[in-house]
UniProtKB/TrEMBL annotation:
Family matches, as Pfam families: Glyco_hydro_76
Entry EC no(s): 3.2.1.101
Signal peptide: 1-20
Lineage start: Eukaryota, Fungi, Dikarya, Ascomycota, Pezizomycotina
Catalytic activity: Random hydrolysis of (1->6)-alpha-D-mannosidic linkages in unbranched (1->6)-mannans
Keyword tags: Glycoprotein, Glycosidase, Hydrolase, Membrane, Signal, Transmembrane, Transmembrane helix
Biological processes, Gene Ontology terms: carbohydrate catabolic process; fungal-type cell wall biogenesis
Single GO MF annotation: mannan endo-1,6-alpha-mannosidase activity
Localization of this protein: Endomembrane system
Organism name: Colletotrichum navitas
Protein name: Mannan endo-1,6-alpha-mannosidase
Family label: Belongs to the glycosyl hydrolase 76 family.
GO cellular component: endomembrane system
Claim: Zinc is one of the keywords in the record: no
Length: 461
């Protein structure tokens, strides 16, 4: 995720009120499915990877590779919740193509942009496919469970005890910006995948790693005693992680909440229930405004970039997943998500909207308050958020038929505990970064930083 803060081009567009084109009665299951279908159609209109000559699994500029993985993870859940298989083939094609040459979500053409978190979002899509019994690929193709296991194994190999006592770095390769940063989303991907693999397979090794990752996050202060989850920490000259970026993003709370819920579902250990509850309590106070979910670090200032405009959808996904894994929290969580779903659907009234190719009047705005306001900020993130907010209202209190499956409860995906452990080198031969490149990068970073500061000063005035 290499995106810097950008002032969206639509930032100066005045929001307008309109009759909602996506009308959903959230008390009627078929109405939810119909509305979700309309929003999903608009979302997939942004995707070009199934066009002749394009690369399956890639979104066009300005979207980064990881967000396509997040989108197809959403579409796996869409199929499970609605029963609509319209997008199954394109989802399977995308995930298998981006699995790469070694079936580990490390395609060589993404080396310049792929970090640990990017790989993780594709792996979590595969994990969801295994848990949802999404149709399995042909036997001669990579299998969903094995793809998640491959990423887990590579995460283990990258666990860095030489600095900060452990943890994953943000970046995989030394030449990518952010290599000296250890962030919660990369370690959250590792934690979430480990916890879910432990639940699915029953293998204690995965559970042990989930414990280890949580303990490390807490030891360096990225997870606080009251369950705030900070963005990350920079590795200093002493090889410690004392310089913490205390910004809080919704997806960090979501990914650790869901992983903790998976561990509680598996172990019934009350410490995991306490952690799940603590994160949910923090998220409720921080990421919900007038009942609707919002992204406080950037949304009030209209400074959310393309990456950040998608974060609310992941918190929604993982809260809904938590509701299934911890039935005692179901009513509380779904009670929080219902007003957000109503507000998100009400924001799907944009017509016309630049760059939107779905049905007229069904573009979904990014901001969900005031209810019914279309803010003009459209794109993959905003559309995916609205789809998630709507479709996860179909989640039922878990029982044998509705809970995510495991290997012992009907899961059919084939695993490979040694996946991803190829001895082949992953680092390509790349031209060295020259002084002129560093200077240009410095100027670009400075310019963006100054624009953000100026924007904030203007807003404060």
């Amino acid at each position: 995720m290499q995106g810097l803060f950008k002032l969206a081009g639509a930032a100066c567009v005045l929001g307008h009120l309109a009759d909602a084109a996506v009308n959903i009665n959230f008390d009627q299951e078929q109405s939810i499915k119909d509305g979700a279908s309309t929003i999903a159609f608009g979302l997939l209109k942004y995707y070009t990877g199934n066009n002749t000559g394009d690369v399956p699994g890639n979104l066009p500029d300005p979207y980064f590779w990881w967000e396509a993985g997040a989108m197809f993870g959403t579409m796996v859940d869409y199929w499970r919740l609605t029963g609509d298989s319209t997008y199954n083939d394109v989802t399977t094609q995308a995930m298998l193509h981006q699995a790469g040459e070694d079936a580990d979500f490390m395609p060589r053409n993404q080396t310049r942009t792929e970090g640990n978190d990017d790989q993780g979002f594709w792996a979590m899509a595969a994990m969801s496919a295994a848990e949802n019994n999404f149709p399995n690929p042909p036997k001669d193709q990579p299998q969903w469970l094995a793809l998640a296991q491959a990423t887990f194994n590579q995460y283990v190999s990258r666990w860095d005890t030489e600095t900060c006592g452990g943890g994953l770095r943000w970046q995989i390769f030394t030449f990518n910006n952010g290599f000296n940063y250890k962030n919660s989303i990369s370690n959250g991907c590792f934690f979430n995948i480990a916890a879910r693999l432990a639940r699915f397979t029953g293998n204690q090794t995965y559970a042990d790693w989930a414990e280890k990752i949580w303990d490390w996050e807490a030891s360096v202060g990225l997870i606080t005693p009251d369950f705030k989850i900070y963005d990350g920490a920079t590795i200093d000259d002493a090889k410690t992680c004392k310089k913490i970026d205390m910004i809080q993003w919704s997806y960090n709370s979501g990914i650790f909440m869901h992983g903790s819920a998976s561990m509680y579902n598996l172990t019934q250990d009350k410490k995991w229930l306490t952690r799940t509850d603590g994160i949910l309590t923090q998220a409720t106070g921080l990421f919900f405004n007038n009942s609707a979910m919002f992204e406080p670090a950037c949304e009030p200032f209209r400074l959310c970039d393309n990456d950040q405009q998608s974060f609310k959808g992941y918190l929604t996904r993982w809260m809904a997943g938590t509701a299934q894994l911890v039935p005692s929290m179901f009513d509380r969580i779904m009670g929080l998500l219902r007003p957000s779903a109503e507000a998100a659907a009400a924001a799907c009234n944009g017509s016309p909207a630049t760059g939107y190719k779905g049905p007229a009047g069904t573009a979904c705005g990014f901001q969900w308050t005031p209810k019914g306001l279309f803010d003009g900020l459209v794109g993959v993130g905003a559309q995916m958020n609205a789809l998630s907010a709507s479709m996860y209202m179909l989640v039922k209190k878990a029982d044998v038929k509705t809970a995510p499956v495991t290997a012992d409860t009907g899961g059919t995906s084939v695993g490979n505990a040694n996946a991803g452990m190829s001895s082949q080198p992953k680092i390509p031969t790349l031209p060295p970064i020259e002084t002129k490149d560093r200077v240009a990068a410095a100027f670009a970073t400075t310019a963006v930083t100054l624009s953000i500061v100026a924007g904030c000063v203007f807003l404060i005035k």
